[in-house]
Protein 1
Amino acid sequence: MKKVLKILVFGIGIIAIVIIATLITINFSGIPSYEVEKIDYTAKSSPELIVRGKKLTMMLCAQCHMNSETRKLTGKRMLDAPPEFGEIFSQNITQDKTYGIGNWTDAELLYLFRTGIKKDGVYSPPYMAKMPNMADEDLDAIIAFLKSDDPMVNASATPDTPSKPSLLTKILCRIAFKPLPLPSKKIELPTTAEPIKLGKYLAHNLECFSCHSADFKTNNFLNPELSEGYFAGGNKPLDEQGRVMLTPNLTPDKATGIGNWSKADFIQVVKHGIKKGEKAMVFPMMPYTQLSDEEAGAIFDYLQTIPAINNKVNRSIYD
Ligand code: HEC
Ligand code: HEC
């Protein structure tokens, strides 16, 4: 008996040492790197694409990259990132060649947005947006805008503060969060002639699904519809004081979702944050003023077609 016990204690000791050694190694080696595939790509550009790119950038990037002092996309501390991920800073993405993305090629930017791999090969953890399903034309538009002389993105020599990812983030980047594949064919942009298709495209690519499904950890970025509790709310993004802001159920369930809403009420909330008889929407539900009524209405039309899920979520109201 004694011998068995000794062997057991010895075995557990070895396992503990292996685990500790692995954690130390992961902590020192940081976020994993991958090979950067060389792709042949130059973003199309035109005045119309730059206008569209600005609209998309305001909706998709500004919340994280806009700095209130420089009033440019020079990056900031992400106060709403869960503290267990570490200290997270978004980066300077103005045209500055030292601190910004002035030295990034169109292909390097596209590769990051599609796969999550930066030009130095380091994987960008999930707090940076990924766009695996975005139409080629919309990515052209975003990149054309980032390279334009708009005051939001013209060179600003504001130094970056590197993020300090926690051990948890480093572990998750080895087991759970992996780069996404490059799309195998061209992704077309739906038009307003197909409202349901357009609504689905926007609901996925403007990241509505990501906040409004069950949990960031169980979201499926490649196939958003496979995310747990798809659009049934209950996810827990944080506000800038680090408090949980529960997300509402946007499925067509009549009791707990938006099954009884009118399209006009939905457009008012999404574009202006105004909800009849209630307090205005607060961070992180930012008003999508850049959307046209047709686009916001198309999101509503699409959401009325998805499976209704009964999930009551109470609004998080603090002061
Ligand atoms: C949820 C917050 C968030 C959103 C939304 C977001 N970013 Fe980022 N972005 C970050 C963070 C944080 C980093 C730094 C990542 C790191 O440390 O690896 C980053 C890094 C980057 C980088 C790499 C910069 C460098 O010098 O390494 C680029 C380029 C970039 N973002 C562009 C964009 C664009 C364009 C959009 C919108 C289409 C966008 N980001 C949306 C948070 C965000
Ligand atoms: C960063 C996370 C986040 C993103 C992205 C997001 N939302 Fe929200 N949304 C919220 C939160 C949190 C609330 C609740 C805000 C409050 O209580 O003031 C909310 C509220 C709403 C409401 C009000 C529902 C109700 O029952 O009161 C609607 C409608 C809505 N969002 C639609 C959208 C659409 C459409 C998109 C994409 C274009 C979107 N949201 C993107 C987090 C998000």
Protein 2
Amino acid sequence: MPDLTHILDAGLEWLYETVQPDNAHQQHHGITIGHPEANRLYGFCPTGADNLPVVVVNVAKPELHPYDLPANPLRPDELFDLATALEAHGLTVRTTWNGHPAITGSVGLVQPAHPTLIAAVDRYHRGCTVHPERSVFCDCEHWREEGRRIVGPNRPTATP
Ligand SMILES: [Zn+2]
């Protein structure tokens, strides 16, 4: 069963240590790793605010009620705990957004993502080179193949 430590290990390894091929592209929102037991979804975005990495925690299945606050928001100390855990990984926190009583919270980091991952995000923004008129919305085999070449994280949920 994955816990937050394993999820952060996997996500941060992908963000900071994984070398991406120079013929792959990565959508700028990055990847998510689920933590179903905790009803959470963690996102690792290579180029968020100010083009620096952002780690996001979301309630995976929010209980929303019209005219009222969500019934199962993030815990009051959850975003702080996430920021603290990221600092324990040797990272520097720039700022945080949202958190309790919302169902989402984000932590902005100082250290830029791995240069080959940033290059892959730049390739995404450049769009399809075969069909420049379709930009990132192309669905041709060349564009999809370029996206498939991205090296994904070692997902902790994949291990028994
Ligand atoms: Zn294309």
